[in-house]
Design a protein that fits this description.
The chain is α/β, with parallel strands linked by helices. It has two domains: 5-144, HAD superfamily/HAD-like (Rossmann fold); 160-306, Rossmann fold (3-Layer(aba) Sandwich), CATH 3.40.50. It is 35% helix and 15% strand. It contains ten helices and ten strands. The chain has helices spanning 15-18, 22-42, 54-61, 84-96, 129-137, 174-179, 184-194, 206-222, 243-253, 268-275; strands spanning 9-13, 74-80, 103-106, 123-126, 142-145, 160-164, 230-236, 259-262, 279-282, 297-299. The chain has a ten-stranded mixed β-sheet with strand order 3-2-1-4-5-10-9-6-7-8. 43% of the residues are buried. The mean pLDDT is 88.
């Protein structure tokens, strides 16, 4: 069964996220551009160590099992600051690990974020904070991957689990701005109750979340019965009565999610330890505390929570 193009999900990943480039970065710092290229060429047949996004990428590409090449629902594109010569080692490493990645851009030191839309990517994962912030500022869906998460038993065809914060991630930060205003929690609660029927505007990960929901719907209609492929969750610090606007917003977008957790201040780590997502997106780094061994934490540097002097 092939997937219509509108149901495919394209993810762009940097070489620094897919592989651990700490050693090669050290060579570049010590020896400069020429020395770096010479060293990478000399080590072209040595596979690069796995990076923080590796486990997620492998599980994501597992969605294509059972499909002919190019006909599965998942595609990964490599967007790299490396030069084309270093790209030889990167692609040899990709083949070494058996990853089905065939498209790439090697930009010789330039930031890859302008090419996110060119490749039709719904998400850009990078270990470079500047590239991620530039992409977010340009209105593009990007996240800074901070941890590798847990290692599973090697079942590449298992369930893919992805979790999201809501405000500042799936939706915009309009409600967060009110919460951080002089009125604080009382003003936030009153505003959310008054606007419960009014959908929030999209945030940076809305399109990616929407693509996952569309693929889930297609799989429920077409995939073999009983095969669990994708499971999504929203994990938010909101609680009642502010919960209603979340549900109404999702309904207005026609987006389905499997699970929603309204925690009202309970540590998100407690839910993450049970749900065990392969990726968890949040706009506040403080919510990742203690979660690095449970999930691949992805920081979305968007909105008022990431304004200078306000992040918590």
């Amino acid at each position: 069964m092939s997937y219509p193009i509108e149901h495919k999900i394209v993810i762009a990943v940097s070489s620094s996220a897919l592989f651990d480039l700490a050693e090669s970065d050290g060579i570049f710092t010590a020896r400069g551009d020429f020395g770096y290229r010479e060293w990478m060429s000399a080590h072209a047949d040595e596979a690069l160590p796995r990076g923080k996004a590796f486990l997620f990428v492998k599980r994501f590409l597992g969605l294509n099992h059972g499909h002919q090449p190019g006909e599965g629902p998942a595609e990964v594109v490599l967007l790299s600051r490396n030069d084309p010569e270093a790209g030889i080692r990167v692609f040899k490493s990709i083949r070494h690990y058996g990853l089905d990645i065939v498209r790439a851009a090697f930009l010789d030191g330039r930031s890859p974020y302008p090419y996110i839309s060119a490749f039709g990517a719904s998400l850009f994962l990078s270990a470079n904070p500047e590239d991620v912030k530039s992409a977010i500022d340009a209105g593009l869906p990007a996240g800074l991957i901070l941890s590798s998460g847990f290692s599973e038993d090697g079942d590449e065809e298992g369930e893919l689990r992805i979790a999201f914060d809501f405000d500042g991630v799936i939706a915009d930060d309009a409600a967060e701005k009110i919460y951080r205003s002089a009125g604080g929690l009382a003003a936030f609660t009153e505003s959310e109750a008054r606007n419960a029927e009014k959908p929030l505007d999209p945030g940076p990960m809305k399109h990616f979340f929407e693509k996952l929901a569309a693929l889930q719907k297609h799989q429920r209609e077409e995939a073999p019965r009983g095969r669990a492929l994708i499971r999504t969750a929203i994990i938010t610090a909101r609680n009642a009565p502010a919960h209603e606007r979340v549900i109404k917003t999702l309904q207005s977008w026609g987006i389905f999610t499997d699970e929603i957790f309204f925690l009202g201040g309970i540590e998100k780590r407690r839910i993450l330890e049970v749900f065990k997502p392969h990726l968890f997106f949040d706009d506040q780094r403080s919510h990742f505390e203690g979660a690095g061994g449970v999930t691949a934490c992805v920081h979305v540097p968007f909105g008022t929570a990431n304004a200078i002097g306000t992040e918590s």
